[in-house]
Design brief:
membrane; single chain; MFS_dom; 15 helices; 80% helix; transmembrane helix; 405 residues
Length: 405
């Protein structure tokens, strides 16, 4: 028993570092991707906008389509294999981006990047299956801080590397970092996994028919999409909103960067504690708290007149993220047959990618229709609708303080 406990803790430590480096590697190239696009040709402003949007979107589009296929393979062949596939593939593809001289080659590599994605959900699936059920919420909460903190540091590191060296060299450095993740995963991650090919091949029903409560699974997946949509709807306009609140005076880019980073900082601080509370007090309670708190924090962001108030509210949003994302993953884990864990976590990634796409598109559209503050109100209303759907289709959420899930 002691050895098993040491095993899952070792996996958690290694995969925390792996997801940290992966999150950092994925995010550090994002701030200057559109600048890199502009270096690959002589484009008009309209062409640059179109190509930049296509370059960003193609990866999320591919992830949304292929994640379930990789998840099914993970359940048949093991999650560690998927960790190796993803980290090695991403290392090669992102490193190769530093050598392109044509926009279509970059778009092709971004397409391949989507095919190679899956490190973080498979890390979550492996932790969920290798960790004792009574500690799974805590473990997933801790794992969440790995890629969240990596995502926080990535843009800053990427900006420094691009400034000191070049954008091209930054892609190559990112590829090297992901190669380190591959080596760590290959040598230090252990999975006690025994595939059941005969049982898997015998399954003739649909995926949902293999769950005791398919309605709960669908509701949680849709929740992942809407929560991520809410987060991403803010991303395209946050710097412009900061500029408006500062009346175009002062270090706008620095302040915008800090405001953008605040939710990640509070998620980093809150996710492990909220995961532990979910294990001890009930995951239903944490999910309800996350929805209510997010709704209450998003609405006033559309009416602030001070950058300090916006900063405080953005920090609070990170607490709701620390409650919502890990708790949804924990509930998926606890309500999924062991053999389908990889499949369902990949579906979760697919819905998250759809949320990222929808958020970027709807955020831009809503800001054009109703100005920047309308985006925050739209996000709050989306989460309110999501919360109502959760209450309707997951009965235990209606009385969370009577349950301990």
């Amino acid at each position: 028993m002691k050895g098993a406990l040491e095993g899952w803790r070792r996996n958690l430590a290694v995969l925390w570092l792996g997801t940290f480096i992966a999150g950092m590697g994925f995010s550090e190239v994002m701030p200057f991707l559109s600048l890199y696009v502009s270096e690959l040709g002589h484009f008009t402003r309209g062409q640059l906008t179109m190509y930049s949007g296509l370059t960003y979107a193609v990866t999320f589009f591919v992830i949304a389509i292929v994640s379930p296929l990789w998840g099914k393979l993970a359940d048949r062949r093991g999650r560690k294999l998927m960790l190796l596939r993803s980290s090695l593939g991403m290392a090669i593809v992102i490193g190769a981006m530093g050598f392109v001289h044509n926009i279509w080659m970059l778009i092709l590599l971004r397409f391949l990047q989507g095919l190679c994605a899956g490190y973080i959900p498979n890390a979550s699936a492996l932790i969920a299956t290798e960790t004792p059920k009574e500690s799974s919420g805590t473990a997933i909460g801790i794992l969440t801080t790995g890629y969240v903190s990596g995502n926080l540091i990535g843009p800053i590191l990427g900006g420094v590397l691009a400034q000191v060296f070049s954008i091209r060299l930054t892609f190559i450095i990112t590829g090297i970092l992901l190669l380190i993740v591959f080596v760590l995963s290959l040598t230090l991650v252990h999975e006690n996994y025994h595939p059941e090919p005969q049982k898997a091949d015998a399954e003739t029903g649909s995926l949902l028919s293999q769950f005791k409560n398919p309605t709960l699974i669908v509701t949680l997946l849709v929740s992942t999409m809407i929560i991520q949509m809410g987060n991403n709807s803010i991303t395209p306009i946050i710097s412009l909103y900061v500029k408006q609140l500062m009346h175009n005076v002062g270090p706008i880019t620095v302040v915008a960067g800090i405001i953008a980073a605040l939710p990640g900082i509070s998620t980093l601080l809150s996710a492990p504690r909220l995961g532990h509370l979910g294990d001890t007090r009930g995951t239903d309670r944490i999910l309800v708290f996350g929805f209510v708190f997010a709704i209450l924090m998003y609405f006033p962001q559309g009416f602030v007149s001070s950058i300090w108030t916006l900063g405080l509210l953005r920090f609070m949003i990170g607490i709701s993220d620390g409650a919502l994302f890990p708790t949804v993953q924990t509930l998926l884990s606890k309500n999924t047959p062991h053999r389908l864990t990889g499949t369902i976590f990949s579906w979760n990634q697919s819905f998250q990618a759809l949320g990222s796409m929808l958020g970027s598109l709807l955020g831009g559209a809503v800001s054009n229709w109703f100005d920047y503050n309308g985006v925050f109100i739209f996000t709050a209303l989306s989460l309110l609708l999501n919360f109502i759907v959760v209450l309707i289709f997951i009965p235990s959420m209606r009385h969370p303080f009577r349950n301990k899930a």
